[in-house]
Design goal:
Elements (H helix, E strand, L loop, with lengths): L9 H7 L4 H10 L1 H12 E2 L2 E7 L6 E3 L1 E4 L13 H13 L4 E3 L4 H4 L1 H9 L8 E6 L10 H15 L6 E7 L3 H10 L3 H11 L5 E5 L3 H12 L7 E5 L4 H4 L7 H9 L4 E5 L12 H10 L5 H10 L4 E7 L3 H10 L8 H14 L22 H14 L12 H15 L25 H11 L5
Parallel strand pairs: 4-5, 4-11, 5-6, 6-7, 7-8, 8-9, 9-10, 10-11
Antiparallel strand pairs: 1-2, 2-3
Length: 455
Amino acid sequence: MENKKNNISRRDFLKRLGMGTASALALSAAGPLHSFAREKKIYQDATNNMTYRLSRNTGAKVSLLGFGMMRLPMTPDRKIDQEKVNEMVDYAMEHGVNYYDTSPHYGMHQSERATGIALKKYPRESFNLCTKMSSYLDQDGNSREVAEAGYRKSFEECQVEYFDYYLIHGAGIGGMERLHSNLLDNGMLDFLLEERKKGKIRNLGFSFHGDLEVFKYLLQLHDEGKAHWDLIQIQMNYKDWKHASGWNTNAEYLYGECEKRGIQNTVMEPLFGGALAKLPNVQEKKLTALRPNDSVASWSFRFVGGHNNVLSCLSGMTRLEHVIDNVKTFSPVDPCTVAELELLEQIAIDLTAYPTIDCTACRYCMPCPYGVDIPGNFAFYNKAVNEGTIPPADKNAPDFAERSKTFAAEYGKSMDTNALASACVGCEACLTKCPQRIQIPLQMQRLTEMLDYKG
């Protein structure tokens, strides 16, 4: 069917909505325009303009914008600033955000408690809360006792009697060996399945980073009826869609495998740890030229929000202004046009040529035993690359001395001396914790060598 007014074909119409083959077939069976109209009525709320999706398992209404409680504001002594968190959550709740995603390990192990405090004053049925079994980060995480104790502690910290969503955290990190030791051989999967039957968990799933064999195996359990997954959280953004790097798998594949099974997705790292909100100047100008009133970050959210199998898109918001801007983007979401998707794909290709470090600032690597601020070092380096202030690789370049001196001076002011890359001793304690599989000690050595210039 052709819409001549907008000059968009039915194929492009479905593409703009982010629909794969399964979704398109479902629409065709019921009549595309009528079916979409019914969905639109469900997805909007009379009290606000937030976009919603429905949980296929419970029928619950879930805000497409999810509040990721990973990067909450901190005080100088590394405590979560509860007053600011309360202010951010209040604004989010007032404007229709009802999905909150936390973990025992977020926010220096303080996120669950801060989330529980911020949400406590609201009726339990007014929000959807997700937390995770994060035992893979613990040295003795394969202990059934430790895992169960952590599970029960999450209820206390979050001050709830049930979780709307409970995820096995970072499935794929550590490969099949870690999956067996931490989930299968110790009976924890059977335990979680029983907890779902009891209603303590409304939806059970996993978040995925790492070894693709683990992802395929967990889907096999689903296909064989040994473990039904209600939700799978994946890393998805317009860069990772077709150009995932390191240990990650292209989101296009992960999303497609979930969509054809009817398993909904929540999305982590839509901004790739903030990198897609601070693009190199050339790429940023291409986006602002088309939509001058929109933030660069909004493009990433519109990309994710245009995919209908996404239940909620998580944003790790640190300041109230982040909440305000993101609420604007999702109230309601305006999916990218075909032309805009093509532009984002070209930018994704361009970004693969930039020598940035693929750190998402998740802070799973922290604290460093020797005090190095790993994500802080990478953030400074990436900012210098994007702004063009990184010293040239050619030491004979005319501006090498000046740019090296400036780079070193700014770097030294960016954090305490004991947090700089030079404090890294190469102990490799961070390597097994990084979801992006960054060779952290080698990158720290490279940063240190860049500062050795004595001109």
